[in-house]
Amino acid sequence: MAASLSEWIPRMLKFLSNLINLNAALATRIRSSQAFDEALAFYDAEDYKAALPLMREASELGNPRAMSLLGTMYLMGQGVREDGAQAERWLKQAIAEGFDDAASVLGMAYATGKAGVKIDLDKAIPMLTEAADNGDEQSARMLGMIERGEGMFKKLKRAKRSR
Fold first, then answer.
1. Domains and CATH numbers, the chain
2. Which of 117, 118, 121, 135 is the least buried, fewest Cβ under 10 Å from its Cβ?
3. What pLDDT does residue 160 have?
4. pTM
């Protein structure tokens, strides 16, 4: 039995609405990817000031790799003044969006206090351990330094011995 016109119109309107929403989502994803690619070209050329607005745009459009690099830029002061709060925000968001490589950077920030991030080894060590287990050599080296009490972690070793 054929649907009446009064039944068909709402279905068609819902279909068109879904199609428009899908188109908008795809356009956002495409622009995010384009902005990230452009930002990455500037970033690789060490033109951080030119990379920053594009990296921010790609991040705000939901690109987790861009979020991770934007967090790194804030952490390292690349094209922007160091800002630990912004670095932590974007790195956490990248991790939440499934970009696990950001955990290494955030773990190092928690271990070192770079850019004013509060030192928190209880957060740093699990992040660095997971990154090291996934093959990140820099995280493995930092874990070794923490365990051996080398470099900036000498005070940590002395504090443990005095307990």
1. 5-161 (1.25.40.10)
2. 135
3. 54
4. 0.83
